[in-house]
Known about the structure:
The first copy, chain A, is α/β, with parallel strands linked by helices. Chain A has seven helices and five strands, in the order βαβαβαβαβααα.
Amino acid sequence: MKQGLKRGLFVGRFQPYHLGHHNAIISALKEMDEVLIVVGSAKQSHSMKNPFTCGERIEMISESLKQANVYAKCFIVPIEDMNENAMWVSKVISYSPKFSEVYTNNPLVKQLFEGRGLKVNKMISNEKHIDGKIIRKKMTTGENWKEFVPKVVAEYLEKINAIERLEAILTNEEKQ
Amino acid sequence: MKQGLKRGLFVGRFQPYHLGHHNAIISALKEMDEVLIVVGSAKQSHSMKNPFTCGERIEMISESLKQANVYAKCFIVPIEDMNENAMWVSKVISYSPKFSEVYTNNPLVKQLFEGRGLKVNKMISNEKHIDGKIIRKKMTTGENWKEFVPKVVAEYLEKINAIERLEAILTNEEKQ
Amino acid sequence: MKQGLKRGLFVGRFQPYHLGHHNAIISALKEMDEVLIVVGSAKQSHSMKNPFTCGERIEMISESLKQANVYAKCFIVPIEDMNENAMWVSKVISYSPKFSEVYTNNPLVKQLFEGRGLKVNKMISNEKHIDGKIIRKKMTTGENWKEFVPKVVAEYLEKINAIERLEAILTNEEKQ
Amino acid sequence: MKQGLKRGLFVGRFQPYHLGHHNAIISALKEMDEVLIVVGSAKQSHSMKNPFTCGERIEMISESLKQANVYAKCFIVPIEDMNENAMWVSKVISYSPKFSEVYTNNPLVKQLFEGRGLKVNKMISNEKHIDGKIIRKKMTTGENWKEFVPKVVAEYLEKINAIERLEAILTNEEKQ
Amino acid sequence: MKQGLKRGLFVGRFQPYHLGHHNAIISALKEMDEVLIVVGSAKQSHSMKNPFTCGERIEMISESLKQANVYAKCFIVPIEDMNENAMWVSKVISYSPKFSEVYTNNPLVKQLFEGRGLKVNKMISNEKHIDGKIIRKKMTTGENWKEFVPKVVAEYLEKINAIERLEAILTNEEKQ
Amino acid sequence: MKQGLKRGLFVGRFQPYHLGHHNAIISALKEMDEVLIVVGSAKQSHSMKNPFTCGERIEMISESLKQANVYAKCFIVPIEDMNENAMWVSKVISYSPKFSEVYTNNPLVKQLFEGRGLKVNKMISNEKHIDGKIIRKKMTTGENWKEFVPKVVAEYLEKINAIERLEAILTNEEKQ
């Protein structure tokens, strides 16, 4: 990391990448020179909690960042889950280019990063009501969900038949 | 992947990222619209075979691509090793944005990707004699190694005291 | 796989192996030359969801197939779970002798296999109402469960004190 | 294990180490020469079920045993979970100094150890009503919990800000 | 296992299945009612030590057993490696139908099974000089290897282009 | 950790626990109030590099510490290997009671702990020439090895037939 460069870290699962994520990143880029986007639970897919593969999530994020002309200021870093919360911050540090600050509203994530001496900022977004879980649910009930995601994400999800996949996942999980 | 977009995939461990890698990527970008760079053995570090962390390798790659003004056309996708070679291609497909062609000179990687119906191209580089293993060795014997890596990589490796780390690793592995 | 040989794949956890499974396999053997029986969640045991070990399940399946004189036309292939749904089909392909068709009524399993270009058939059984979860529950409540499994399975479960095990598991899980 | 030496095994997660555990161990030391304390789920932490790290749990246990002047007669053996219940007893045997008897009130644990030919005793404690789950809950609701743990444990938990951690964990898990 | 039924266990990696394996199994079937064939290192493939997938190995073994008219007296049980030798016997017991005796010439395997109270017999084969490692080497050097494997195995290996695979693997491993 | 208490950390595999380890620990206890003994590679056993199980190693260490009347000042903490060197220090921190200083002569271990801000001391032992690898070798060649380990360790290794095990392991590994 160059002398004086400010890099902020975001963590999310991006199932899917929505306007809450997007606006918070755009907003952080006003304070930071570069932003690191950690794609958590990278190996999960095809479940109600994590329907999309890591590759599909990178596709949604990068396309949105390119549309907003900020892709060149971002890093997308997928990280597989680990079963050991006490070491998760160490994994993020080891897998990511160096960063100086963290953006999160999660009090546990805040405690864990502060425990390693990192500065943690509040994540600011005008779309606090947007939530991945709600969007995934709307996709299976026929409600409108497209207004909560960037336009390129809505197009992408249609192209990969996301609704059909979510319906099959739901049937599968209800049967278990 | 947009209609008609050509994306090529590169796989490497990038220990460190050297001019052989760099020139092959620059050269592939003449045929491809975008290039995916898979950082293999993502979780390995601090061994003679894999001295640098995933985060350090992303730093070397991205800085070199930015210097060459091609970062915006690239994806960097770290992937943890799996013990099951027969499924490795499936993991690359699941973790990466969609790609249409693969660049490799390794006959086994070629067989595995062709077995999944993907087109495989020869990787072309004017620096065939450059090899990560040789560079790592030179770093522990005091020989010149900087001429084999992009200038920003040489500077980065100095900044993180790479030589001191390699010497400690070597002592550790010889003792085992 | 010999030229022209037709092999169908079944996937189940077989906790326990019941008449729903058994009849569907017998029925598929009218269309197929051979049947592959994948024993999923192979490493799980001693939980309400998966009370029996892999070895015990192979014992129940093979004994039933031998009674029905079809063991020689079947393969029993235990597979450990993997945490990555997107790669699960690749694991089944890598662990199993070659197969040409799949039998399933699960829409997600159907999507995943079709995504790899395999033909998927509906699983036909006259005992649609038979379900492992219900059988396991009946075993802990003293209800009749033996009519839902092949006779040799009922005898086997008695011999290994299955009810006593299920009761201990239930107490253990309720306490957690 | 010296000829004639009697060693009893206890298994727990010790989240946190409470008087129910403590009194049962003190009581077993009247029948046994030495006691082995297996700290289960060793790698879990920062969840409602397992809030404390392995190191923190060893600290609570050892400090309590030292206060009671019995530390020198005990072994503390942390063991990571395994996904295979059928093999868990083998893991305990392989990780622990040799033992001759087991103390547990869990019927499944009893079955598994007896299946390997080990003698299983009932765990006796005057504090049957004490339970880790209840203590953890009390810690997040402001109820009195200190009376259920050894005094040194209460002091330790205050020092590491356990309540603040539990509150952050709870917020995190509710959001998932 | 029915009263009085004698079942013997064989362990191998079967890379490939050769006449040494085959004759020992045929010979054991003179003493045993049934034979269990554990396919070790089930998840390994595409390396010089383990070139063939689990599915390919099951294909070779089952086809040979069918030719010899003994398939119906055998079980083929693939088992993934575990990193813990002390627990490996427990894994074999948990994954396999019940068995009473073990066939092996390996002194460590003998010690581990005897440590669990199982009877261990010497494996008898007239083809002691046959060895998987030597066969794999011959396949890459153009020497005659077909005489060391059952005829159906030789045909199968030709059909899946085994030699081409082994050559690619060798190039790959030499480069590492 | 109580205010002002000094705790030093030792890491070893203890295959077997020898006088080099023992004297260094006794010597550190002159500077430290308590010593933490991390038993690395806890899950490995039955290989030439790691012949003894975790339980057997705890037995050797604790018996030696008891003979030297220092057991009550020590913690024995087994830790399973992880594949990620960059996070290994985090694992040690998470599994161990709190410690303030580290004892090691390994330059890589030194770098990793210093990178987390911990003080690292040189390990002092009068028996620098003692080495586990050499002892294990002597045990298979009939040379004298007992003089290099505490007397109770020599007796214990005889009791568990260690030499017979090492010979079986050696035969097994040579055959691979």
